[in-house]
């Protein structure tokens, strides 16, 4: 055939997501940077409650998501939510977590000063 063809959509993918994120990919820098930060010292709101309900997301994961989106010109929490479902680099970066736009919006609102310190 004269066209380049992709893989069959119905075939099981044998490679894990990490195969799609090369060693030189800038997302690895974001991951390393956030891991090196002391989020409590920067003033991020940390949750230590044992209340019933949904478990909170790690602040580091949300900050990583925010930084990736910021670097790629994505400012809306709704667009961030969409990116977590379709962007392979982002899936790798935050371990396929998919926080909704409400969680992202509250995180950004409650941690504005801390985010500015981290950036």
- What is the helix tally? 7
- Spans where pLDDT lies below 50 across 5 or more residues: none
Termini separation comes to 49 Å
Tell me the overall shape: globular
Class by SSE composition: mainly alpha
Number of domains: 1
Question: Which key terms come to mind for this protein?
Answer:
7 helices, 119 residues, mainly alpha, globular
What does this protein structure show overall?
The protein is mainly alpha-helical and 119 residues long. It has one domain (17-44, 57-118). 50% of the residues lie in helices and 0% in strands. It has helices at residues 27-36, 39-42, 59-71, 77-86, 88-93, 101-110, 112-118. The chain is globular.
Indicate the topology.
Blueprint: H1 27-36, H2 39-42, H3 59-71, H4 77-86, H5 88-93, H6 101-110, H7 112-118
What's this model, at a glance?
The chain is an all-alpha fold.
């Amino acid at each position: 055939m004269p066209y380049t063809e992709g893989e069959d959509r119905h075939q099981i993918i044998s490679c894990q997501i990490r195969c799609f994120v090369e060693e030189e990919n800038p997302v690895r820098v974001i991951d390393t940077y956030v891991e090196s930060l002391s989020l409590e010292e920067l003033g991020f709101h940390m949750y230590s409650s044992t209340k019933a309900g949904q478990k909170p997301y790690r602040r580091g994961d949300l900050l990583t998501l925010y930084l990736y989106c910021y670097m790629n010109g994505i400012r809306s929490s709704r667009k961030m939510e969409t990116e977590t479902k379709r962007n392979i680099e982002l899936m790798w970066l935050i371990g396929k977590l998919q926080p909704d736009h409400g969680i992202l919006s509250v995180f950004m609102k409650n941690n504005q000063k801390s985010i500015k310190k981290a950036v």
